Amino acid sequence: MKTKKIILGGFFVALGVIIPMLFHMVKLGGPIFLPMHIPVLLAGLLLGGEYGLIVGFLTPIISSVLTGMPPMMPVLPIMTVELAVYGLISGLLFNKFNFNVIISLIISMICGRIGAFIVVYIMANMFGFAKLNPVMWLKGGIITGIPGIAIQIIFIPLLVNLINKSLKGGAYEITN
Asked: pLDDT tens digits, residue range 129-147?
């Protein structure tokens, strides 16, 4: 089971690099539709918090190195923390504490944005990134990302339920 989860984790990291590239190719903005968030949230929900954390941490770093998205500074550290928190919290809530998918998503999105806020605050106040305003970053991320948030809340529960249903009659189940 561990090998299967490692392979699926790698698959979700790859999706987290490829999907944003596809969105940018057809001129759909990443900050609006949040395409990198979807594979990370799926990884947390389907593989658990530990794998969600790793996928969330690695995906923006690998994407930044390979594609330049997100930019190394100042966005990469912010997204790395935000997505790592998404993966961890969604996986813990759904798999360990048996929250439903939608509640797990919403709480993980709130926690991830709090993590991003903290990183922006630290970067602005301790490392001199004077142009970063934590409140404006948070507000802008939420308002700009409303279409992506809606997509996540609508489609991720459908995908999780579909994947889990298709695997229940089979030889194995991903979660738990």
From this structure: 878 899 999 999 899 999 9
Q: State the DSSP code for 34.
A: -
How many CA atoms are closer than 13 Å to the CA of 153, on its beta-carbon side?
Answer: 13
Answer whether residue 72 shows pLDDT above 70: yes
Q: How far apart are the C-alpha atoms of 42 and 124, rounded to whole Å? A: 31
What span, in angstroms and rounded, lies between the C-alpha atoms of 91 and 44?
4
Q: Confidence band (pLDDT; 50, 70, 90) for 35? A: very high
Show me where the domains of the chain are located.
2-160
CATH number of 2-160: 1.10.1760.20
Dist. CA 116–CA 110, nearest whole Å: 10
Give the list of residues 6+ apart from residue 161 with CB closer than 8 angstroms, or none: 101
pLDDT of residue 171: 47
